[in-house]
Specification:
The protein has about 280 residues and is α/β, with parallel strands linked by helices. The protein has one domain (about 65-275): Rossmann fold (3-Layer(aba) Sandwich), CATH 3.40.50.150. About 35% of the residues lie in helices and about 15% in strands. The chain has ten helices and eight strands. The chain has helices at about 25-30, 40-50, 55-75, 95-100, 115-125, 145-150, 150-155, 180-190, 210-215, 230-235; strands at about 80-85, 105-110, 130-135, 165, 195-200, 240, 250, 270-275. Strands 1, 2, 3, 4, 5, 6, 7 and 8 form an eight-stranded mixed sheet that branches. Helix 3 (about 55-75) runs parallel beside helix 4 (about 95-100). The longest helix is centred in the N-terminal third of the chain and has 22 residues, at about 55-75. It is globular and about 45 Å long.
């Protein structure tokens, strides 16, 4: 077996992937310390780190929020079905791992628009013996396609409560693409008792940072970034009951005292997170 001497993270090109254009999932992967990214992704991520030295720690804090929220849904809220939209490249602590630890019969359908996610997902997301896990390539901007997809329908029964997860993805939907309308479509497709787990980038905690500078690395990517304010994030939950502690910075959402937390330079994770229930 040949030795791997390249110190930089290297991903093998697969069909349909343009390695010269940054993709949010691969930028996120690099910031988490993954290897499934390319030079363009690393360059964009390094620019973010210059603008906000706490970006890497903030991304990890966001990942920790997702783990806590999914555990709450599976272990406390009794959710057995999860529709994870914009899942990103598989890494430790994925939705199906957390959910199926709490309930081995939990079912998880992953959705992402990056082909590399599909490649890794189908190889790694086997699920538990009793549960079920699938991954499809689709874009969250086409909710009807996702909701009617045969592989999603094979895993999710939309007559029973569903936990819809949109973690760290809606800030890649521009106002012109109607992010609120997209979310409302998913909310309308699930019955009473369902949950919405959502997180979103904000600059509310960084008034000294210019939005144009912060979002610049994504200008030439597959999806531009649109940070939103607290009031704008609250709109995504309209009509649903947001559970305690409400829409808060991700590090303040039910923090686990036993979970190791890195100090974030600047003191903030720059992201809101919340879970809401459908009446």
């Amino acid at each position: 077996m040949p030795e791997l001497t390249d110190p930089e993270p290297v991903a093998k090109p697969v069909p349909q992937i343009n390695t010269t254009v940054p993709h949010p999932a691969r930028i996120y992967d690099y910031l988490l310390g993954g290897k499934d990214n390319f030079a363009a992704d690393r360059e964009a991520a390094e620019h973010l780190l210059k603008v906000s030295p706490g970006t890497r720690e903030g991304v990890r804090a966001h990942r920790a929020f997702l783990r806590r929220a999914v555990h709450h849904l599976a272990a406390e809220a009794g959710m057995t079905q999860f529709l994870d939209i914009g899942t990103g490249i598989p890494t430790q602590g994925n939705t199906h791992e957390i959910a199926q630890q709490a309930n081995p019969e939990a079912r998880v359908a992953y959705v992402d628009n990056d082909p590399i996610v599909l490649v890794h997902g189908r190889a790694l997301l086997s699920g538990s013996a009793k549960g079920m896990t699938s991954v499809i390539e689709a874009d969250m901007r086409q909710p009807e396609k996702i909701l009617s997809h045969p592989e999603v329908r094979a895993v999710i029964d939309f007559d029973r409560p569903v936990a819809v997860i949109m973690a760290g993805v809606l800030h890649f939907v521009t106002d012109e693409e109607d992010p609120y309308g997209l979310v409302e479509t998913f909310k309308a497709a699930v019955p009473s008792g369902s949950r919405l787990l959502l997180s979103h980038i904000t600059l509310d905690f960084a008034p000294q940072v210019r939005e144009e500078e912060f979002t610049k690395p994504y200008d030439n990517s597959t999806a531009p970034m649109v940070p939103r304010t607290l009031d704008q994030v609250l709109r995504f939950f309209e009509g649903w009951q947001v559970i305690d502690p409400g829409v808060v910075e991700v590090v303040r959402w039910r923090p686990d005292e036993h979970e190791g937390r890195e100090r974030i330079p600047g003191g903030h994770a720059w992201a809101y997170g919340a879970v809401a229930a459908k009446p």
